[in-house]
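Morning!

As promised:
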Amino acid sequence: MAVDEQLKSEMARQGIVVTSLQELYNWGRRSSVWPMNFGLACCAIEMIATTMARWDMARFGAEVFRPSPRQADLLIVSGTVTKKMAPQVVRLYNQMPEPRYVIAMGACAISGGPFKQGYNVLKGIDRYIPVDVHIPGCPPRPEALLQAFIELQKKIDAQPLTGEGRPRFLDVDAQGEFPVPEPGEHDLEPTSNKGVWTVPVVIK
Amino acid sequence: MSFVFYILAAITLAGGLAAVLLKNMVHCALAVSIAFAGLAFLFLGLDAQFAGFAQILVYVGAVAILVVFAILLTRSSDTPKDGGVFSRTWLAGLVVAAAVFAVIGWAVLSSVGGLPHEAAVPTVTVLQIGQALMGPYVLPLEIVALLLTVATIGAVIVAIHEKEDAK
Amino acid sequence: MKTVEEIKAAIEAAVPGAGVEVVHNPGPSGQHSLRLDPSHAVEVAKFLRSDAELAFDFLSNVTGVDWPDREVTEKVRVTRPVTRTVDGVEQTVEETVEETRKHVERGCLEVVFHLFSIEKKHGPLVLRMRTVNRTDQVELPSLTPVWRSAEFQEREIFDLYGVVFKGHPDLRRILMWEGFKDHPMRRDYVEPDDFDYEPTAHDEVLARAKAHQAALQAAAVGHEGTGAD
Amino acid sequence: MLGEGILKGLAETARNFVGSYVSKERLTTVEYPEQRIAPIEATRDFPFLVYDGKDWDAGLRCVACQICEKECPPKCIFIEKSKDKKPDAVGKQQFYPARFDIDISVCMSCQICVEVCPFDAIKMNTEFELSTTDRFGGLLLDRQQLAKSNEYYHEIHPTEASGVDARLAAERAAAEAKAKAAAEAAAAKAAAAAASSAAKPAGGEA
Amino acid sequence: MTPLAGYLLVAALLFAIGLAGALTRRNAILVLIGIELMLNAANLNLIAFWRYGPHPEALTGMMFAIFSIAVAAAEAAVGLGLVISIHRHAQTADLDEMNRMKG
Amino acid sequence: MTKIGTKLGFGRKKKPEGWNRPPVIEQTSEGELLEVAMGPHHPSTHGVFRMNLALDGERVIRLKPEFGYLHRNHEKLGEGQSYLASMPYTDRLDYLCSLTNNWAYALAVEKLTGQQVPERAEYLRVILSELTRFQNHAGTIGFLMQDMGCSGTPLMYAFREREKILDLFEELTGSRMMCNYMRFGGCRVDATPAWLDATRKVVAGLPAFLDEFEALLRSNEILMARTQGVGILPPDLAVNAGITGPLLRASGVNYDIRKVDHYGIYDRFNFKVPLGDHGDVYDRFMIRMLEMRESLKILDQALKEIPGGPVVDPKAKIRGFRPKPGEAYGRIESPKGELGFYLISDGGPNPYRYRVRPPSLINLTVLEDMSLGQNVADVVLILGSVDIVMGEVDR
Amino acid sequence: MVEKLDQIFVLLSHWLVGFLPAGLQQAAGIVIGVVVIVCLYPALFALAVLMERKGLGRMQNRYGPNRVGPYGILQPIADGIKSLTKEDIVPLSADSAVHFLAPIVVVVASFMGFAVLPMGRNMVLVDMDAGLLFYFAMGASTELAVFMAGWSSRNKYSLLGAMRAVAQMISYEVPLLLSSVAVVMITGSLSLTKIVSAQNAYTGIFPHWYIFTPWGFAGFLMYAISTTAETNRSPFDLPEGESEIVAGYHTEYSGFKFALFFLGEYVAMFSISGLGTTLFLGGWSAPFSFLTWIPSWIWFFSKLMLSICVFIWLRGTLPRLRQDQLMNFAWKFVLPLSLINLLVAALWRFLGEGWQRWVFCSAILLIAYVFMGLQEARSDHFGPRSYRYAE
Amino acid sequence: MSDMVSTPYFSLAILFFAALGFGLAPLGLAWLWGRVFAPPKPNAIKNAIYECGLESKGDAWVQFNSAYYLYAIIFLIFDVEAVFLLPFAVAFTGLGAAACLAMLVFVLMLVEGLAWAWAKGVLTWA
C-alpha cells in the first residue's frame, strides 16, 4: 500500500477519507487482478507456464482466469496479433468492464516482433488499445511476466482516485470506447486509433 | 386481517395480473410464479404450512419450469412482431371475466355476515397429514398415483417427437 | 519404388494421352517430378491412388509456386533496311546490327503435389501442374475429390496465390479475411504500408518509414498551425 | 467396479496434496521476486555489446562491420558506422559504431547476431526483467545501454567467456606475434635495406 | 370484513384474472397459465374454508388442496405437452392462428 | 496399411466415389438451430481457432472451421531472408515443439544441399526430439483434460515435468521454448557431459510421472465415458485425408515416419509403434500415453550409446550459404504428425519457395467428419485430441 | 462450563436481548439470529474460497494465494473490493430487469435454507414441523433464478448454460428428495432438530449416525452426488463448463452481480452440506461419545468444512461429465438406486433389531449397485482397453 | 404483534429481508461507487453480446430442443410424488404393513411411469 509521500500530502488536503479510500481501492484492485483466459500464440504457452506450479501466478491472487471478458480485469495480449484477429482483440478489450488493464506480452504484441514484416501482422496492439505494461522477449520468460505483473501492481498503486492524475476510467470525460477496426480490402481501416497511438515525432 | 394479508394479497394479485397482461411470455411465466409464491404465503397465513410449502415446491419449483420450457420450445419468448398479444375477442373475454368477478364478489360481500368470523387455530402437523393420507384418503392417494402415471405417459406421448419414424 | 520414368510410362499406359512430362531436379535430393496436363490430372491422380503397385494413397503436401513474368534480355543480330543519306542521296541499305532485345516470358502459377504411399510405404512422388498465365487463366482441376487432404491446402493456394481449383467443394479464402483483395504470396504483392514507427529499419522499410514520418511530422506541424489559428 | 478409477485418481491428488507439505518434488513453486531458479549458463535473452577495460566507449569490441545488422532475421539492429577510426584493444585502427541500436521490442533472441559476429563483440544477456510502461523509451536500447563489461560477460556465461577470452588472447598473441614478426621483418628488411643501402654506396664507391 | 371474506375476495379476483387471461390471450401457454391461476384460486378457497370452517381438525379442505395441487400439476404437464405437440404441427402457439388453420 | 480393427464399424469397405465429403446431418428434433461461434477467443480452441457451429440443442449439426487468426506469413518471410534466418522462425511454427521443427527444416535443407550430419549431432537430435515429443504429448493430454474440465490438475502435473525438460533445453540451447538449436549439417553447440548426466537423471524420473498420470487418468470412469466412442475416425478416411501422427495411429494405421523413412538414425533404436483399434478420443489419448513410454525407450538407448565427436559438419557454412538450384522435400515425424519442409532453391541466398507442410492444419481436415452428430462438449474434446497448435495451422 | 461453552452463542444472544424492553426481546433474538446467519456464511464463503484456491494449489504442487495479507488470507477481501468497484455491464439487448433480479434471487434462495438448519444444540432459527419441506421448497426457487440469469442475458452461451443448469438441477433434485425421505422415514419427522436428536445417541463410543447404516450410507452417497450436481460443482459443473460454453449462465455478468452468483453458489453449498450433515452425519453431535464435551457448534461447522473440503478435492481431481451422461446418470442410476434405498429403509424398520437386517439391507444395496453400475458401463460401452504394437 | 413474532414465519420474513438486503446492499454500494468515482461509460461495443470476440449473429432466443421438456414432465411428477411421500415418511414409524403396502403401490405406479419412459427412450438424452 505504498503511496508516495508527495501524493499523500496532496491527498491530505482532500481529506483523510479519500486517501484511505484510495489506498483501500488500489489495494483491492491490485491484489485481485483476474486475467482473461486469452492466448494468441507462443507467448500464451509461457503465460500458461506462469500459472503452472513452477511459477504459480496464483500467489498474487491472479490465477482466476476468467473465460468471459465481463469478469476479467487484465488482458494479457500474449502473442502475435494478426490483422484478422485485431478487431476481435479490440472488441474483447472493449467488452471488459473498467478498470481494465492490458499487458502486451512478447515482441509480437508490442510491435509485431519478428513477424512485423508480414502482411497480415499488426505492428503492435497499442495502435488500438492502451497498453499498461510491455514485456519484451520472444517469448518472455515466466518470471518476466511475473515482473510485469508486479510492475502493473505498482502502476495501480500510484493511481490517484481523484484529481488530475486519475486514470482514464475514473474520468467522466475520458474516452471509454475504443473503436473496432474493420478489415478492409488491403489493410485494417483505420490503421490505428489516433486517440491511443501517436507516433513519437523523433526517431532516434 | 392484518396488513401482512393485504401485502400478500396485493403481491399475488399483481403477479396474476402481470401474468395475463405482460407482453413477453417469459415475464408472464416469472410473474405467475410470483403469484404462486404469494398464494403459498397466503396458505401459510391460513396455517396450512404443508400445503404452502408443497405449493412452492410444486408450482414455483416445477410447474414454472415446465411453463418456461414450453415457452422456449414453442419459441414464444419473442414479443410478437405483428402487434397484438391479445385475442381478437379480448373484449368479450374481459367482459365475461368482469361479470364472473362481479357475481362472485357480490356473493361474497353479501354473505359477509354469514361467514364464520374466527375459528380456533388448528395445529396441523405433517404427521397428521400423513396419517390421514394413509387412512381415510388412501383411495384418493392411489387414484392420484394412477392419474400421475397416466399423466406422465400421456404428456410424454403427446410431447415426444416422433422418434420411432427415425428408428 | 519405381523411378519417375517408370511411373510416367505406367501412367501413359493407363491414361492415354495423359501428357506427362518428367521434370528433372538438378539438386542432390534427387526428387524428380512429373508435370501433369491439367485436363487429365484427375484421371492420373485416380490411377496413382488406385494402382495396386503404386498405391499412392496419401497426398502429403500441396503447395503453390509463383513464377512471375520474367523479362528475358537477349542479344540478337538483326538485319534490317536502314535509310541513310549517303552523299546527299537517300539510300536504303541492308545492315546487320547487334541489338539487345527484351521480351517478357509469360509467368505462371504452379502447384506441386507430394505423394506418398502408406500401404507400400514409399514415396515421395512429386507432381506439378501449371496454369496458363498468372492473370486470367488460373484454373486448375482440384484433386480434393481424389485426396481429401488437398482440401485445406488447395484453399490456401487459392487464397495466397489465386489459383482457382475447379471441382473443389468449398473454395473460399482460408487464411485471409473475406473481402481481402490480393493474393499475398505472389511475388509481386505489395504489402500495405503501415511502417509508422521503425527505429531500426533498413533499406526499403527505412525509406517507407521515413516517408511516413515526414508525412506525420508535416501533419503535426500543420495541425499545430491550425491550432494556433 | 464403477467408481474405482475415480477413487484411484482421488488417491493420487491426495498424495500430491500431502506431499506438497513434505517433499520439494511435490511443491515445485519458486516464489519469484524473492526466490529465483539457479541461473542457467546458456540462457539467452537480448544481445549486449562487450567492452574490454574500464571505459565502455573506448573498449567496445564492435567494429561496426554491420554483419549482424544484415543477418538479424527480424532486422532489429541498427548500426551507423563511424567516419573516423579508433584503435581497438589490440591497438589496430578500426571503425566503431557511431550508433548501435537494438529494438528489443522486435528482437526474437535467436542468437544469430552472436553466431555471425567475427569479433566476439556481441553476446547474449541473461537479464529478463525488462518490463516497462514506457513503450517508446524503454524498449529501444542504445549503445550505452547495450555496453556491458567483459567482467559482466564472465559473470553470466563463465565457460563461454573464458573460451572467448582464450581465443581472443590467442588471436591477439598471434596478431602480436605477427605484428612482431612483421615488425621484425620490417626491421630486418629495413636493416637489410639499410645494410644494402649502406653497402650500395660502398659498392658504388667500390 | 371477516378474514374469510377477504380470502374469498382475493380468490375471486384471482379467478377473474385467470379467467380474463384465459379468455383474452392469444398464446395457448398463457391460456394455460390463466387456467392454472383459476385452479389456484379454487385452492385458496378450499384452504380458507377449511381454516375458517367448522371442523378444521378434519383436514378435509387441506387434503383437497393437496390433491388439487397434484391434479393441477398433472394438468399442466399434459396441457403444455399438447401445446408443444400442436405447435409442432402448426408451427404456432397462437390460438387465433390455430383456428384459422383449422378453418 | 496393416491390420485394422474391426470393432465399431471399422471395416475396410471401399466407399463409393465422393465418400470423403463430411456427411450431412439431417436435423431430427424440432428445435431451431443455434448458430454459435466458438472462438477465436474461446477457452477450448487452443489459441485463436474458430469453429462455426450449428447446434440442435447440444448436438452439432454443422461445423465449419475458420483459420487465419494467427496467419503470420511464415512462408513469405522465409522467402525473403536467408536459409539460416528462417531457422529461428521455425521455432515459432509449432511453438510447443521447436526442436522437431528445427530438425525438419534442417533435414530439408540438408537434402537440398546433400550435407552430411556427424553422428553425435544425430544422437543429440534424436534425444532432443524425443524429449520434445514427450513434453508435447504430456502437455496435449493435460490440455485435453483441461478441456474435459479437470481444473488444471493433470495439466499442472504435465507442466511440472515439462519444466524439467525445458530446463534441459535451456541449459543446452539457451532458451526454454525457442531453441534455434539445429544447423544445416549438425547442431549449434555441443552437449556437455554434465548435461547428458542431467538428462539421464530427468529421463530416469519420467516413468514415475507416467505411472502417476496413468493412475490419475487411465481408468477414470468419467474420462472413459467421455472419450470412448467419441470422435471416431475410420482409417480409410484418415489415410485419404492425409492425417498423420498419433491421430492416424489411433485409427489403427501403422505409419510412423521414424519407421518408414528411417531419417536420422532411428533405425538404430529398438522401439515399437502403438496402434489403436477404435480411433476415438480415448485411443488418441492412450496412443500418446504409450508413445511417451516408447520415447523413453529411445531416450534410454540414445543416452547410453551417444558417441563422441564433432556436432557440426566442419564444411558447413553459416554465412554465405547458397545451395545449388534444385528442390527438396524433407519430412519428419513431429509430435503432431508429418512435418515437412519443401524448399526450392534458385541458387540465391534466400529460398525461392519455402513451404511448410503443417500436420496440425491437415489433421483438422477431418474435424468436421469426426464432430458431426456429436455433443458440443465432445467437439471440444475432439479438437483437443487432434492436438493443434495455431502457430503451425495458420503459419 | 462445558455446557456454557456449548451454549455460548445462545447465552450471548439472551444477554444482548436482555437490554431491550420485554416486548421486543423475542423479535430482537430473531434479528440477532438472522444477522449471525447473514454475516457468518459470507465469512465462511470467503474462507472456503481461499481454502479452495489454496487446497487446489497444494494438490497441483504449488502454493496458491499467499501474498495478499499474511498467508494470503486477505485475498477474498481484495476480491470483494475489486468486484464492488468494477463497472457493471448490462448488455443492450438483455432483459435488464430480469438480469438484475437473477443474482438477488439466487442469493436470497440460498440463504433461506439456513432458517431451519440446526447449527448447534438449541441453535436453530426456526424449528418448523415441515422444516425439510421448507428447505426443498426454497431450493426449488434457485432453478428459476438460474434460468432467469441465462435467459435474460440473451447470450447463446448463457442460454445453453441455463438450460443445462435447469435440466441438471431438476434431474438431481428428485434423488436428493428421495434420499432424504429415507431419513424421514426412520426418524418420523420433517423437523431437522428432531432428526439430529434422533442421531445424538451412542452405542459404546459410536454414534447412531444414519451414515453408519446400510441405507444411510447408500442414501448419503446418493445425497452427496445429488448435492454436487445441485450446486453445479465439479464433476457436474457443466452449466459453467468453460471449455464449452465460456462461463455458462453468468457469461454476461460483471462486477458484484457476478460475485453474488459466486457467493450464492458457495452459500448454497454450505446450506446443502449443512443439510447433509444434519441428515446423515448427526448434525452437531460428536463423532464419539467421549468427545461430547466439545461444543456442538464446533462439530457442526467442522463437519460442514469437511464436506467443503471433499467438494474441493473432487474438483481438483475429476473431469467433467457430458450433458447426456449427466442426465442418464441421474435418471438411470441415482434415481433407481435411491428408490431402492427407500425400500431398504422400510425393510430396515420391518426387519427389526438384529444382524439380519444389516446383512439383508447391505446385500440388496450392493447387488443393486453392482447391477446398476454394470448397466451404466454397458450402456455407454466403456471399459479399459489394451493396445497392440507394430514394429 | 407478539402473536406475529411467535410464528415461525416472522423469522423467515426477517431472514428473507436480511438476505434481500445482503443482495441489494453491495449492488447499491457498487452503484454509488460508480456515481461518485468511476462513471460507467456504456457504449455500443461494450454492451454488445459477448460472442468470442465476434459480433453476435442471430438471436440466442431460439426454439429449443424438446428433450428438456420430457425431463421436466418426469421431474414434475416425481416432485408431486415427494409431496405425498413426505407425510407418509413422517407417519411411517407408526404405520402398519397395510399402509406401507399402499404406499408401495403408489410408488410402484410412479416407477412404472418411469420405467415406461425409460423403455420408451425418453430418458436417453437426444
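Residues 1-19 of chain F have pLDDT under 50 and may be disordered.

Hope this helps with the figure draft.
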